[in-house]
Fold each of these.
Amino acid sequence: MNVGLIGAGHIARALAEGWSRADVPGPPSLVFFDVDAAKARDLAAACGGAAAATAAALVAAADLVIVAVRPQHVEGVLQDMGVALGERPVVSVAAGVSLARLRAALPTGARVARVMPNVAAALGLGVFMLVPGTLGRGVAEVDDLFALAGDVVEVDEALFDAATAVAGCTPGIIAYLVEAFAAAGVAHGLAADVAVRLAVSGVYGAAAIVAREGDPAAVLAAAATPGGMTAAAVEKLEERELALTVDRAVAAAIARAQELA
């Protein structure tokens, strides 16, 4: 499959890196376009793709087009592509731009969907919320494409912002927590590089264990044995109502997505 990416920012790079990993079976051929031509060329060089001189040239070379620009630019990009898209599916990865807005910016009958990735796609560990929209028979090929870089979860558009807040924002939030753990380690005498390494390894292993067991509560119960160190730490987090704070963080992310709409 020839995949065209319009936009060469962080999300486009994460997707391109995920699809161009050495262990990906049958990777897509990638074509990039960005208004900053140097960014498109750099990304093409890094991921083994090609840079298109114009958005129209990208569309002509692609079987599927992914729009990875800032939300305020999405509709303009779609209008510029217009009828040149033909039967090609279009996938928007922009937050806050509804299917209704996407369809309004495209010719009648266009095949369009929304996907929200996260940056872990670069490692093949991404999670992708998919709203199939008007893809029709193209749903399977879009699902298969994104599955090369992680886990694809189909969601109703009414829940898209909530799903994005839970999964799409997670890498940044976990990075914040890793930074906090490392800082606490430094405060108690660890060298900074050692503290970061320990925090990263701890989070990575914990995620793997929870993924394997499929039950966060069971893992917590097994780890936080009564009278132990983990139980003492969790007690302090509960005193500070960490669960409530996380709920508020998710609500804030959802509210921001709705402001972008």
Amino acid sequence: MSPDGLALIGPLGLETVRKFWNVDAVGGLTLGADPISYAIAMASASTATPLRAFTVRKEAKSHGTGQLVEGPFMPGDAVVIIEDVITTGGSALRAITAIEAAGGRVQGVLALVDREEGGREAIEEAGFPVQSLTRASEIIAMMNSTVA
């Protein structure tokens, strides 16, 4: 959530989304996906096709709109589900279920980090392509090379 992190992740995330998908919006399960989704939407603001960001609540509130999906999401939107970290894939699959129930068309999942613990495979087995900005093994390798 730091300014430097958002400034780095927004453009990288946008570049990856645009490389693999043609979508209207990005978002995922609160709270992990929120800052990443917002950074990507902000990075897209000055482009010809800005992306909208949404959030998926863990459960609907009994007051307010009472919806699971909040923000400028619209039924029929093509979306990419955003994850901060993929471990089991459960959060992404939960967000996918909520978006499809609200009339969205999930095109895939973008994660900041794939922990390489089976989550990617679970999401792909459910029929959704996954991209990650980095993997746990890459982070560990970089850490080990700076220690040596």
Amino acid sequence: MKKLLAATALAVALAEAYRRFLRAPVLTWGDALLDQADIVSTRAITIDAPVSAVWPWLVQMGPGRGGVYTYDWIENLLGMDVHSVDRIIPGLQQLQAGDAFPLKPGSLELRVEILEPEHVLSLRSDDGRWVWTFELVERDGSTRLISRNRIAMGGSSLGERLGMFVMEPGSLVMERKMLLGIKQRAERLAAEPRPTEEEVRSGALAA
């Protein structure tokens, strides 16, 4: 009985410690990059592929890079140089924290703030008003891709409040297409036959 009571007391203490000190950081990873946000969205999709087949598509994302896997014609109407590709581009796989690329020529940039390979990619606009974080969670060979946006509108004017009614549903349409685009590409990549060790050696000798 004493052991049971001690175990129960320990479990309660650990649960309380988690609630007070760890729960918020666990649930808001990356949110410290933008403390006050007027718009917060969290969207996710399950991909039937390992994280190794998903991560390369995230790394090469961006206007003038691998695209954003959504409705390119809409992005380009806004002046962005978006051409979503269906292949992994080796030259775009060396992303590092601090790297930046413009949303469109002459506009603000997105900068890589957090990069944990095959786990977390967090981008922040150089005006500090938008943070976009991707998290990959592997589950028995499949991957849960989580996309979280935090946006500061910069005020509470009538025009800005009305803008939310356009931005929020619009972002759902675009982001849903993006997540589905990544899912299709990653699952196709995972299904591609991998060369055997013999084929790799033969290719190296032939080269």
